[in-house]
């Protein structure tokens, strides 16, 4: 044993440091080879005498040596002899025996044969082995560059900067020559092309590598950092004979291709002038998706949530999700009226939910396709959020039962930043869905734009490399190759629970839509496309030639499906009315009545009993874990909370705590997500405590409320708004029984998520008849913090409210709830912690769900007056849509000269100013807490109460911003256009706020002066 180790030490150059140590130190049992010290120039005499042992060769030899130690037969005979000789003490330079020609007799010389060999040929032997290793690696790294991926053969992927030196004619690049092609080389452990053989002639090595990496599949994976994952992929593509299909599998594949192709042809025949964004040119998408679903179902997945753009969407609905064909066909009937409320959406945006038996696995599977707007890729994070929620509700912690599939277009995948944001959520603990299978319909064009104008990366899929997702490029005209990579992709997801991309390289047979003329802009491409035989025809001919099916069977398959379509078409004529409800992607069983209505039109009190408030308050001011050291500053905060609870008061953070805590105790999951939400941007929340002595030890007191409470999730998000808000919207979509909140760091950062707000949150119910109770917390307030840290842009949300400014509603008992039911979203700006508490609880206690936009105050988080008593939160209390002036103005309302309506934190500035001017009797200040839907009834009561008062709207925002434009016509309607509505606030401006502190204060004072100057509007 000792001799062997000595031999190992002699086989590589020693470092200077090693030379000072014993040369026979044993190799640490677990140490990976690559951690050995790098060779230096201080060679010892024995090494210098074996020149091939220098540099990188020595590593190679070393690997061989350790393999030999484990099993002498695992190395070539010549090496076996060399190691035996070296071990037996052969002098330097004499351990080698010249090997027999490798191309000939592989048995090599027997033991005990002469040990002296000629050094140059030994050197060549090692170099040649290294060269072969490098060549193998070149295929693995860059084989996809020369794979035949493009069905049109005109691929614009340009790898001129990275030429691939592989193939029989390139062996010279590696120092090999023609003569070496028939020599046998030992295969490294990083390839599986040998199958059961450990050595192969170079010619065969190249042939097998060409088969694995350069045909219709291009595997891009060598950037992955994980060795096991790389090995896994190599196995999947390199092992000889991996791509074998049974006759049955081939027939199923053909049948799926028939459905996919004939569906588009049917639509084309019936509605030749309708836009449908057909799949022609990428028909193999259908078997691709079905394969992913079948394989995943086999691996235990029961629920698949999908998101996709326009291209081929109807085909996916028909042939993957299996929506009834007549439901699809009747969408083409322009005469049908819509049965449901709402404005609806075009057919290629609608969603779908379907539970059925997977025929291949005979297991139940639920498939849903999430409705989406035209905005490409915007649905990606929404799908992820919904998937996460479904995993959460069924306790699927590893994503074994629920998964997502995202489809993309090539141009959108490369161009839309949301794709990158979504990828970056994929491995974050509170956002991971444990692997998404991405499928790109890479038709090598985006509307009229060529890829070389549409992206700077060679492939549209390069964005996926950031998360080490393997990318399988495949020629979509080879359905078997497509099905093979889809199987591997599904297995990858089931094995590693990480993202994977299938890039279906295809073409678009028609224009962008069926009405478009592609020859205007892509004449040569389309000349080629016109010549292109359809993939179904090609595949059918192949299978007929192979004898898998007869032509007659193939034709029967076609007529069978055509008949199905015709019959469904006939049935679709019987449809009298269009039901958008049939296209719902996320039903909420049991939440509504059977015909989809709310179970009531009332909302119970949102108050809590005293004991409950105390209990939650106690948890909010404690550290519920043993031996947990929190920061001194935080101790003081918790003590302050305890004192507040003692005196039956809450501040903003405690009001929120009470709302979350009580809902959790009632079994409602609460999820708060956004940047730095755990502590709170303004350091007021502290929902996650950090042990000051133990790294990463944290405690979430909110999860220590009671043994049967729902779990509380509070999670700092990645620095994304678009992606994260989309994700939370998707999470909220899955169930009505959760309070899902997204908080923007500063209010206006929601700009980055505008697409989610404009296209999903605002009109979601109107377009897709699905409700959503997501809550947006948007810090807002003019505090001299500059243009970007002041305004959450209330005007934008208010502009998108659907309540009519000119119609005074009929006042009924259920008006407050009915208004909420009729609106598209609720916009509030609470001025007290109690009202914040109530509005959060109301969100869940309502019998329906609406998005809730809350402008949250920054300065009120710690304002001494912005506190609420328990009395305002007890049973019987509720959210106050408007808080009337209840001060001395009430004693003699007739004497009140001015009634100022306002909202949010400016109230406290107005009250302070009124106090300092001693105008409590003459000026009333009322707070509109719920801006939309507008509390017409309460505002009317207030205006009626002060008949002599001038009515003013006061806001701290600039005149063209804030609430004025929304509030003014509604105040006018309330007063029957009889009383003017005066404006108090900042002048119109381009920026939301000044960056100059002094200017800010001057502006503030000016508006306060106007508010209390009773003759301010006299001459206007
Ligand atoms: C965010 C966004 N920008 C622009 C468009 C307009 N548009 C619709 S489809 C399309 C081309 C999409 O190309 P690609 O992603 O390759 O999908 P394909 O239509 O080729 O399947 C464009 C630019 C859009 N719908 N959404
Ligand atoms: Mg495209």
From TrEMBL:
Catalyses which reaction(s): N(6)-[(R)-lipoyl]-L-lysyl-[protein] + 2-oxoglutarate + H(+) = N(6)-[(R)-S(8)-succinyldihydrolipoyl]-L-lysyl-[protein] + CO2
Any GO BP: glycolytic process
GO CC, one annotated term: nucleus
Annotated keywords: Calcium, Glycolysis, Isopeptide bond, Magnesium, Metal-binding, Mitochondrion, Nucleus, Oxidoreductase, Thiamine pyrophosphate, Transit peptide, Ubl conjugation
Keyword RNA-binding (UniProt): no
InterPro entries registered for this protein in UniProt: 2-oxogl_dehyd_N, 2oxoglutarate_DH_E1, DH_E1, KGD_C_sf, ODO-1/KGD_C, THDP-binding, Transketolase-like_Pyr-bd
Subcellular location as annotated: Mitochondrion; Nucleus
Residue span(s) of domain Transketolase-like pyrimidine-binding: 650-863
Cofactor(s), names only, from the UniProt record: Mg(2+); thiamine diphosphate
The keyword Calcium is annotated on this UniProt entry: yes
EC numbers on record: 1.2.4.2
Superkingdom of origin organism: Eukaryota
MF (Gene Ontology): metal ion binding; oxoglutarate dehydrogenase (succinyl-transferring) activity; thiamine pyrophosphate binding
NCBIfam families on file: 2oxo_dh_E1 (TIGR00239), PRK09404.1 (NF006914), PRK12270.1 (NF008907)
Family: Belongs to the alpha-ketoglutarate dehydrogenase family.
Protein name in the entry: 2-oxoglutarate dehydrogenase complex component E1
